[in-house]
Structure formats: structure tokens, C-alpha cells
Structure prediction request, 193 residues.
Amino acid sequence: VLLRALEIGREVGGDDLIGRISELLRSNDEFVREAAAGALAHQASPDAGEDAQALRALARGLASADPHLAVLCAECLTATHSARAVEPLAASLRAAVEEGDLDTARDRIRALGELGRPEAAAELGQLLTRKSLFGRRRLRELKLAATHALSRLPGDQPVGVLSQAAQSRDAQLRTAAQIALERRSPGLQPDRP
Prediction:
């Protein structure tokens, strides 16, 4: 319903339609929030012209105090498959790591992998070289998740990052990187423009 309203609003020429829809992300009604996030994701996708305002609204949602809304916005950014979604997800990952929020960091790593953009490899690679601010075991868990996410990304950059990780002194990271390299599908699509 909301997506159809968005299409009609675009045709009629609603000046701040995206702004009004982004306000619905704060609704108490979960269905309305999900519909609004879905409509924003549609508008932020390359197929719909990568509306910058819609992308920014979803990016703001990543920092929401409501963890369900933050996860919803991460999922919707992932659904856009837009290269422009990498930076807000990466910034949210960096913030989660700095704050010691393991669950959010794991979720953002997963989202970067599911986004399927080779541009995410640099951010995930930085995580692999990070020293322990988190506690050795928790940081290792994030690094292992990052190797899995890297295995899902197309292009040469993720291969390079995984190859470096496969030389790590950390035996678990080294093994995970080697497995990720082996699991990379030969059918991964080439880098998207």
C-alpha cells in the first residue's frame, strides 16, 4: 500500500514525500514502520534512481535506540544492493565496534556481506587487521564473521583481503580465511558498476 502511495506521490509530484515516509519509521505500528522502510529501500535502490534522501533516512535509522528499527533499516539498506549503502553500514559497524556492541557489529558485518558489493571489502579488511580493543575472543568472533561476509562479495578485492587473512598468525582466522577462499563460488558475478 505504502509503495503504491509512493508511486502515486511521485507521479503527482509530492515535494517532500520521502521526508513524510521517513517520518513513518517512528510509528508505533510495526507494519507501518516495515512498509515505510520497504518503500524507502525501493526508492534508494539503483533501479529507482538511488534517491539520496531515502538512503539517508535508512542510514539514520541504523542509529535508532530501537534495535528492531535499526535492524530493519540495515536489512533495507542491504536490499537496495546500492554501492551507496556501504558507507552507512560501515560507519554503523565502526561505531558498534568502538562501543563494544557485539550484536550490532555482527549484524552490520552480515549486512555488508549480504549487500554483495565489493566496496565493502575494504571495511571488512580493516576489521580483520584490528587489534583487540574488544577482548580477544569477541574480536575474533567478529573477524570470523567478516571472513564469511567477505566470501560472499564479488570481485578481486575480497580475494586479496581473504588471502592476507589466510597468512595471519591467528590460527582460527587463518583457517576461516582459507575456508572462505575455498567456498567462494566460481559463479560470483563481476564487480557491479
